[in-house]
Amino acid sequence: MNNIGVKIKINDKHVTKAGFDKAHYVLHAMAVFARRQGRNEFGFLVGGLDSDTDKSVDWLNTTLKLGDVVTLEIIKGPFDPSKPHLPPVVSEEEQLKYELELFYRIKEELKDHIEE
After folding, report:
1. 113: which DSSP letter?
2. Which residues sit opposite 73 in a β-bridge?
3. What is the number of other CB atoms lying within 10 angstroms of the CB of residue 96?
4. pLDDT digits (tens, 9 = 90+) for 31-40
5. Strands 13-18 and 4-10, how do they pair?
6. What residues have CB less than 8 Å from 67, skipping those under 6 apart?
7. What are phi and psi of 88, to 5 degrees?
8. What is the distance between the alpha carbons of residues 51 and 37, in angstroms, rounded to a whole number?
9. Taking the mean position of all CA atoms in its chain, how far away is CA 106?
10. Smallest Cα–Cα separation from 81: which of 60, 52, 59, 62?
C-alpha cells in the first residue's frame, strides 16, 4: 500500500514516522498551546484513528519549550509502529477538583443569567 504519513523532527532530531498501512484511517499531527493557572504549556501530538477497527492510536505526545522547532514532512511508508491511545489517568480527587473549578468558573460567568 502506498499511503501518505508524516515524518516528525524536533530540533532536527528524528522523532517518528507516523502513518497507516491500511485503506481507511485518519492521521493527525498538531501543536497544542494552553494557558493554565498563569503558565504556558506547549505540546505536540501525533495520532490517528484506524477506521476499520475504530481504535485510536498515538505515535507522539510530547511537551515543547519556547524556541523548539518542529518539522513535519509528508512521506510515504514504511511507518513506525503506533501505540494504543490511552486516556490520561487522574485520581478521583483530581477529577472532582477540576470539575468544581469548572463549575464555579461557569457559575461566575453566568451569574447575571441565574435566578437563585
Report:
1. G
2. 7
3. 11
4. 999 988 888 8
5. antiparallel
6. none
7. -60, 140
8. 37
9. 25
10. 59
